[in-house]
Write a structure and sequence with these properties.
Blueprint (H helix, E strand, L loop, with lengths): L1 H23 L18 H4 L12 H5 L7 H8 L4 E3 L3 E10 L4 E11 L5 E6 L2 H11 L5 E8 H4 L9 H17 L1 E10 L6 H21 L7 E5 L16 H6 L5 E9 L1
Parallel strand pairs: 6-7
Antiparallel strand pairs: 1-2, 2-3, 3-4, 5-8, 6-8
């Protein structure tokens, strides 16, 4: 009986000790992804099997690989595939440019052939590559730039003949169009203030728009891309009080005497 009692106390003591160790144990530290340090490795250390190498191809060239094309035609357009799956699938690695730093994304492009050796399907292996390629090749809307030039700077009073200061202003517009972008369309609209007869102001605004077009054409802007119009005083920017024609009224109406040039094109 005594020996049994001792063993029982020993077991009980061990249980208490184990219980204490459990309650005293600190919780494990939680490690988040951002706690890890970045790892770096040189490209040559990755080995040839790790790096997928592709080639750049013009979008219009890739679009010629369409359903119904022959196997020989595909080979003529894209060259030899990097991998084949029997006679059914050909695989190409295509480089898609990333930004302007020369980086690129390598994506697998798969071409399936039917029993007649004609293309039955073309597809990017990953939907991310498909979406990115479509974004790269999606037609971009033309850039629109509006330029408003004061008629008082371009022309003398009651005149459609350009002043030297006006020609300098138009030189800057012509430089943008001929050197910095591919022009698709340009519109020139002349405006006047409300002083004078409506018919006269309308004719003057048209003559001034024509004068601006002629000068821009002389500076290299294609005439077939330019349209002109005159709106007279029908589209004022400001409203001024007073009926008496004086310098104060003329100065107030100055924003209405203008030529609006709208440029559309691609940079």
């Amino acid at each position: 009986m005594r020996k049994y009692a001792v063993n029982r106390l020993a077991i009980l003591g061990c249980g208490l000790l184990v219980g204490c160790s459990v309650f005293d144990k600190q919780p494990e530290e939680v490690v988040y992804p951002y706690d890890f340090k970045d790892a770096s490795v040189q490209l040559e250390q990755l080995g040839g099997d790790f790096i997928r190498r592709g080639f750049f191809v013009e979008p219009d060239k890739l679009s010629r690989v369409a359903v119904g094309e022959s196997r020989s035609r595909v080979q003529e357009i894209l060259g030899e595939p990097v991998e084949r799956s029997g006679e059914e699938w050909w695989f190409y690695n295509i480089n898609l440019p990333l930004g302007e730093e020369g980086d690129h994304l390598v994506c697998q492009y798969r071409i399936a052939f039917d029993t007649q050796s004609e293309v039955s399907e073309v597809a990017w292996r990953r939907p991310q590559c498909r979406d990115y390629y479509e974004a790269l090749t999606r037609p971009k809307p033309p850039e629109v730039q509006d330029i408003t030039l004061s008629s008082d700077v371009l022309f003398g009073f009651d005149s459609a003949q350009l002043l030297p200061a006006g020609k300098k202003e138009l030189d800057m517009a012509a430089s943008v169009v001929t050197k910095e972008m591919q022009l698709t369309k340009m519109s020139i609209v002349g405006h006047t203030d409300h002083l004078g007869a409506d018919a006269y102001n309308l004719a003057l605004s048209k003559r001034r728009a024509e004068s601006v077009r002629s000068y821009l054409v002389s500076q290299g802007v294609p005439v077939e891309l330019i349209t002109i119009d005159g709106q007279g005083s029908s589209q004022p920017l400001v409203q001024c009080e007073g009926r008496r024609v004086n310098q104060t009224l003329k100065d107030c109406l100055q924003p209405n005497r203008r030529v609006d040039i709208t440029i559309q094109g691609y940079r």
